[in-house]
């Protein structure tokens, strides 16, 4: 079984070895619905064919002036029509239920799988492509069952029933229909084979087109500010054209569909053959009428097979894309049986090296943070400060060396237990498009009450600005929290961390452009959130560095020195360069200057 960072209890496991097996394993969860549908669909087709036979019998009754039989046939036809309508309604409802359950289960399966994927996986994937698979390919699955499978089963069962009925009328009449069915199946096989690769490419191109659109819309601010609408338009047009070309190609294949022509010829031959048997007194006129009406029923399967097979092909192509996504390798495992203790917050980096690809980013980093200590991390931009913190809660794993928490390698911890006791306040804070209260309570689930949320917000210096909104804590913050300023978002994130009360806090406070009143509030909030937990604090602010028990100085991925602010001022050149002009300029500026020096 593939590695996963998240699983749910009692999860149903589907066979993902191939698209067809996956579809079957989904559908077979609902055997009762399948059997009911098969029985009802067969009953509908039998009743429908019986109606054709009644029509022929009515002709014979008219020719024989048998009024009694004519009345009986009329009543039987009416009853059959009513029964047929009811049974058909049942069949359609059951298959709809089957299709929607299939789509729901598949959506849930994909969603759980995406939640369980590692950060490296999500870095690789384009969001637009995932969305295309999750939305459009999923819809394609539902269409594959209804009307796809529904129509295919219906037409093939109708074909079988028609052949049986014709055989019962007179076995000699089977000659042309059977030849037609054989020809039809061969043509259908070649049709599917030609259409299959085009359908697959069509689905893939849809994913690419969607990803391009998604990127342009997500980065709309950059597109506008750099006046690159034309470039984006062209890029989209190129992809949309490719999509259209596949669509046209698929249409051409459908247009060359042979069975429609075959059917016309077969119907004419059926009539000739029937006429021949009639003239030789082997069948009655009524039988000929029934035969032609039954043969006419084959038109349904001929016409429907073009688009219903196309739907199935698109569904199978969509299934393949969904399975491929679910089967994508992920690097970390949830480690269900791992260590689950209450965390003290002791962090040790032991000769840790790491790179995102082949280029090393962190080189042989070692340090120790005791429970409750605040460790500031400073260094030039791109020196690996954020990367270092990402190894603590296993967003990534160290490639060499070990990261230990409370003396245990993070890889030995149960992932959920590890991550739930570590909070991160990123530089680029992500808020969900939900209410402020929900955003603060995120990570605490439904356990947080309003009073606790408000207390956390007060401690994070956020209560005041939240109350200035008309809807207070119920204000919805817009996608990614766009309705809030950077400083406001940061305080919401601090409130979230205060509420979760983690043992280890990772705080990236590299933002600089904040006015002094807000700055003051943020400083207070950060000072409050540091209390009582081990904190890794990425910062450019001297005031915060002064609170730290230890400062780590990073340069080009190496930890070049560590100690208290005073010790480092005394012995570390790079560090001294950072703060040598502190008296007059803000710390951020100093770091920027030092970055230029440090990078030399
Ligand atoms: N997801 C990623 N995939 C590939 N490379 C990455 C990824 N994230 C960061 N890097 C690279 O790793 C290096 C270190 O980045 P990191 O974000 O850790 O630096 P930093 O010191 O936190 O920088 P800053 O102060 O600008 O935030 C950079 O060269 C960056 O390009």
Would you give an account of this structure?
There is one protein chain. This protein has 600 residues and is α/β, with parallel strands linked by helices. Among the domains are: 19-327, Up-down Bundle (ABC transporter transmembrane region fold); 429-501, 3-Layer(aba) Sandwich (Rossmann fold), CATH 3.40.50.300. 63% of the residues lie in helices and 10% in strands. It contains 21 helices and ten strands. The chain has a six-stranded mixed β-sheet with strand order 6-7-8-3-9-10. The two termini are 48 Å apart. The model is unreliable at 581-600 (pLDDT under 50). The chain binds adenosine-5'-triphosphate.
List the helices and strands and how they pair.
Layout (H helix, E strand, L loop, with lengths): L18 H9 L3 H33 L3 H49 L3 H6 L2 H43 L5 H44 L1 H6 L3 H27 L3 H21 L5 H43 L19 E8 L7 E8 L4 E6 L5 H6 L9 E6 L2 E2 L5 H6 L1 E4 L10 H6 L8 H10 L3 H5 L18 H15 L3 E6 L6 H15 L3 E6 L2 H6 L2 E6 L2 E6 L1 H7 L1 H7 L7 H12 L2
Parallel strand pairs: 3-8, 3-9, 6-7, 7-8
Antiparallel strand pairs: 1-2, 1-4, 4-5, 9-10
């Amino acid at each position: 079984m593939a590695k996963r960072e998240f699983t749910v209890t009692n999860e149903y496991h589907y066979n993902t070895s191939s698209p067809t097996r996956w579809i079957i394993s989904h559908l077979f969860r609902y055997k009762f619905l399948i059997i009911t549908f098969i029985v009802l669909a067969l009953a509908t087709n039998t009743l429908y064919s019986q109606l054709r036979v009644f029509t022929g019998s009515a002709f014979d009754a008219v020719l024989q002036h048998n009024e009694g039989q004519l009345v009986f046939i009329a009543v039987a036809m009416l009853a059959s029509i009513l029964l047929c309508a009811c049974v058909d309604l049942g069949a359609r409802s059951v298959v709809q239920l089957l299709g929607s359950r299939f789509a729901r289960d598949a959506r849930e399966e994909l969603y759980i799988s995406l939640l369980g994927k590692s950060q490296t996986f999500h870095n690789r994937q384009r969001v637009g492509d995932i969305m295309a698979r999750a939305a459009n390919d999923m819809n394609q699955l539902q269409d594959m069952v209804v009307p796809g499978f529904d129509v295919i089963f219906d037409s093939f069962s109708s074909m079988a029933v028609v052949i049986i009925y014709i055989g019962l009328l007179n076995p000699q009449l089977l000659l042309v229909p059977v030849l037609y069915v054989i020809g039809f199946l061969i043509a259908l096989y070649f049709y599917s084979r030609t259409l299959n690769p085009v359908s697959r490419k069509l689905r893939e191109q849809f994913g690419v087109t969607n990803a391009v659109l998604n990127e342009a819309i997500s980065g709309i601010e950059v597109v506008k500010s750099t006046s690159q609408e034309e470039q984006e338009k062209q890029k989209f047009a190129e992809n949309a054209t490719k999509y259209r070309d596949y669509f046209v190609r698929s249409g051409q294949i459908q247009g060359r569909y042979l069975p429609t022509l075959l059917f016309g010829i077969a119907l004419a031959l059926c009539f000739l053959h029937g006429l021949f048997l009639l003239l030789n007194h082997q069948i009655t006129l009524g039988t000929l009428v029934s035969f032609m009406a039954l043969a006419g029923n084959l038109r349904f399967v001929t016409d429907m097979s073009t688009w219903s097979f196309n739907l199935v092909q698109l569904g199978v192509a969509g299934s393949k894309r969904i399975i491929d996504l679910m089967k994508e390798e992920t690097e970390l495992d949830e480690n269900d049986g791992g260590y689950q203790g209450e965390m003290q917050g002791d962090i040790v980096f032991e000769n840790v090296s790491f790179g995102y690809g082949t280029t090393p980013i962190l080189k042989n980093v070692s340090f120790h943070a005791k429970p409750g200590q605040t460790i500031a991390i400073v260094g030039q931009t791109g020196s690996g400060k954020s990367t270092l913190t990402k190894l603590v809660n296993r967003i990534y794993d160290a490639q060499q060396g070990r990261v230990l928490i409370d003396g245990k390698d993070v890889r030995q911890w149960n992932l959920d237990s590890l991550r739930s006791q570590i909070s991160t306040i990123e530089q680029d804070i992500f808020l969900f498009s939900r209410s402020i209260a929900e955003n603060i309570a995120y990570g605490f689930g439904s356990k947080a009450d309003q009073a606790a949320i408000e207390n956390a917000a007060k401690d994070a210096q956020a209560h005041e600005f939240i109350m200035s909104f008309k809807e207070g804590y119920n204000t919805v913050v817009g996608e990614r929290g766009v309705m809030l300023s950077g400083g406001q978002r940061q305080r919401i994130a601090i409130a979230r961390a205060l509420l979760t009360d983690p043992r280890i806090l990772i705080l990236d406070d590299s933002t600089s452009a904040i006015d002094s009143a807000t700055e003051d509030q943020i400083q207070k909030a950060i000072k409050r959130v540091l209390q009582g937990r081990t904190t890794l604090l990425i910062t450019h602010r001297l005031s915060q560095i002064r609170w730290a028990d230890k400062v780590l100085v990073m340069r080009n991925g190496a930890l070049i020195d560590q100690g208290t602010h005073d010790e480092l001022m005394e012995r570390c050149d790079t560090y001294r360069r950072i703060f040598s002009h502190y008296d007059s300029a803000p710390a951020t500026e100093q770091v920027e200057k030092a970055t230029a020096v440090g990078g030399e």
